[in-house]
């Protein structure tokens, strides 16, 4: 099968998200300039640089009360900071609650019953007791082709690691099993690892 996206795919559901998988989930917490708080998952998310450490996520839909984007991007525009919270398999249901199309007045921490903690390097809340948190300062927001597509880049200014996820000095993902986004309504978790040496190592 071959199709041009501009012509449509002719399938019952769009296969694009199922092709680019698995995708890590950036559970993004933000605080508006008015003090309101937001927590939302984004599966267009990844690390993009080591030194200095940098991450990105993309928002691809808009809400009528947020000037052509969503709460996360709007808050980051205002404050210049955000926090990435790592989603473990055990948090799949509360993470899903935070994905709802809630009004900007809704605090997803409260709605989903999620414990919050204050970040150390930025004025923002983070998900308490999650395997890791990346505190970030905004470096740039890029508007991508399309009506509401924005890529947000940030430099990591603080890192929290949960103690039980550190084994022999290494961050062990099998201790919490990261949740990954697949296509459609499907998810997966990382439970098994294998290693490969690069040529010449």
TrEMBL record:
Residues covered by the Flavin reductase like domain: 18-173
Source organism superkingdom: Bacteria
InterPro entries in UniProt: Flavin_Rdtase-like_dom, Split_barrel_FMN-bd
Keyword Oxidoreductase tagged: yes
GO molecular function, one term: FMN binding
Keywords: Monooxygenase, Oxidoreductase
SMART domains for this protein: Flavin_Reduct
Protein name per UniProt: Nitrilotriacetate monooxygenase component B
